[in-house]
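Example record

One chain of 429 residues, shown exactly as stored in the release files.
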Amino acid sequence: MLQTAPEYIAQKIPSVFFRFSQEFGDAGFQAVLVGGAIRDIVLGDEPGDFDFATDAEPEQVMQLFPSVIPTGIQHGTVTVRFHKHSIEVTTYRVDGEYSDRRRPDSVSFTRSLADDLQRRDFTINALAIALPDCQVIDETGGLQDLDSRTIRAIGTPQQRFREDALRIWRALRFSARLGFNIEPATAAAMQEEAAGVRAIAAERIRDEWIKLLSGSYAGEAVLYAAQIRILDTVVPDILTDTDVLRPVCQGFETAPNPAAENPGALWEWRFATLLAIAVQKDQKRVNELHRFLNERRYSRRDVSVLLHTLRAILADVPETADIVPARRYLHCLQKADYLLVQHYRRLLGLPTASRKMCELLHTESDRGIAYSPADLAVNGTELARILDRPPGPWVGRCLSSLLQRIVDCPEDNTPGTLLAYAREWAGSF
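Predicted structure tokens for this chain:
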């Protein structure tokens, strides 16, 4: 049931935005709330950022408030600092041609909210709320589409996707998040205009892809991306055969959420699993992914976590359910959740740990093992002092040797035992 009652809506909007809207009203202008927050409120979800649209032109907005940043003034957008909030305000406008398939070449300001809402991408994103009465304004049928759980492009779908092909990924992202169906004419236009996706800046696609993979219904959206042949823009050399992808994507929804201490977020586990399909355990191709991810402007942290998660998923599970193989396997996983690893290996059709091995993994992970030299009971400085040797590359080699011993025998991770091992190691050189 949609939440359109003014009383309900008023509770969801912080009071500062009522005061902000009143500033426009007192000056003879109109200012309404627009954007995804309206959709979220009507669906009963917690709203995100609140943005405003107004019939005041940017220069008039700048005269109304003492602190205004002209963030996108050429397209009618400014950011107003108001009671410690940064509020984005865009003048009602009609867009010109999109020659670069991203931004309009020109905009024309208008006094008509209806005209402004008609330029937006999907009906569910073209709702507005007038303050202070909290009435929902719907000029495109967005409420009906929210009720029927439908994603529908406004106007002619082909034109919308030609204006900005990123809207194809946005449609898939909303489908992944909300579980909505894509209206047939919109879906047909997405397939027809899919080639335009390849001209989009890599970081714009990356942002939509991360949000898509974070959605509760990501699996179906990934399959749809494969069907319209744009999945390879985010996953290199991915097989687009849905018979291969389907069991993996269907398993996305049944995977447990990563624990807070796990190095990878949900989207990273899902992405790493798709990358595993692409590389098919070819270590050379795993290494090539570093360049691919860098080219798509993923952060250094994201690249590290993705490749670590991928290697954890592809790591061979010990055939022998014994304590030493279990410890070595945990060390190989490097803090990746072994239960999540088994889930995604199962989706990929790879061998998984036996029940006995899982019991051993549970016991040993609870005990704690050394994953890196930083987990050892001695450090490089202490080694150099005790062994009376100047620091150098030998320190790293010695710590690595100690770490391998401690993986097999965690109980030996004490200063005395490690230093004895270190003297033995040093004596062999």
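Notes: The two ends are 75 Å apart (CA to CA).
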